[in-house]
Amino acid sequence: PGYDRRVDEVTLKNGRVVAGPTANRYPFRLAREMEVAVNEVALVGEVRKQIDSSNDYLVSLYPAFGINHYFVGGDVQADGSVSHGPECVTRPEQASASIIVFATAGSFRDNGETINGYNTLTPPFLTTRMWSPESWQLGADPNDYGHLDARHGRKVVASFLDGSIRSLDVEEMRDMRLWSVKAAMNNDSDYKIRRSRGGRL
Question: Which of 36, 77, 124, 170 could form a disulfide bond with 40, CB atoms 3.0-4.6 angstroms apart?
Answer without folding.
Answer: 36
